[in-house]
Amino acid sequence: MRFGARLAAAVAAHGPLCAGIDPHTPLLAAWGLPDDAAGVERFGRTVVEALAGHVAAVKPQAAFFERHGSRGVAALERVVADARAAGLLTIVDAKRGDIGSTMAGYADAFVGDSPLAGDAVTVSPYLGFGSLRPLLDLAARHGRGVFVLALTSNPEGAAVQHAVGADGRSVARSVAEAAAAENAGASPYGDVGLVVGATVGSAVADLGLDLAAVNGPLLAPGVGAQGGTGQDLRRVFGDARRLVLAASSREVLAAGPSPAALREAARRRADELSVALAG
């Protein structure tokens, strides 16, 4: 089954929440875990064990594992393996982007047969959307998904994403339209999604983005502790709300390390998001 179809089924079963797996230093300390490879592995595997069968997807942030070198990367591999075994969709938040053979190498790592490959990966299109072609093609062959940065909520992003090209389109609009072309005709929706921050305000309308036409999942970070609300989701995504997979990390992870408390926090957040995105 293609990634888009798997994700649609998971959202229908568990709600539109993607729980982050972000083992940063303060959170590890709060959980009573060491800030080393063993600590991030225990953190990640605990989240997977607690939330499998209760959320649509999880999103491990690769950087928090990679900072511990080869042992940290091995820890990420084991987290991904646990999620796969549990039937829990995993979006590896790696934000890779490059050209040619280097992009093909990233494709092998994150959407090929590598143990780092989850169900989907985040990527950066700022060397040109076409530079993603090796990864897009390999992901399609393996039934995996790709989330392309389009309109992020960090203030620095606007300098690039809001910029207007010679064709009169903003960079963000160009990325969205390229993703829509990849997803044309897919049902219930395609495998190439976008990352659109929950707190971008009126930027979607201001830049002329038609998010419903993307026909792919819209990963929306920034909900909860980062300030995004249900009202923000409705305002930003409008009639594309059915495509939204809202990412929330700190509000869920702060409930750990108790598996029962993690599940309860995730269920409460998923219910709130379902209400916010209904209609």
Overview of the structural elements:
With 279 residues, the protein is of the alpha/beta class. 47% of the residues lie in helices and 15% in strands. It contains 13 helices and eight strands. It has helices at residues 3-14, 25-30, 37-51, 62-66, 69-86, 100-111, 133-142, 158-161, 171-183, 203-206, 230-237, 250-253, 259-277, and strands at residues 17-21, 57-60, 89-96, 120-123, 145-151, 192-196, 218-220, 244-248. The protein has an eight-stranded parallel β-barrel, surrounded by seven helices. Strand 3, helix 6 (100-111) and strand 4 (120-123) form a beta-alpha-beta unit. Helix 3 (37-51) packs across helix 13 (259-277), helix 6 (100-111) packs parallel to helix 7 and helix 11 (230-237) crosses helix 13 (259-277). The longest helix is centred in the C-terminal third of the chain and has 19 residues, at 259-277. The mean pLDDT is 96.
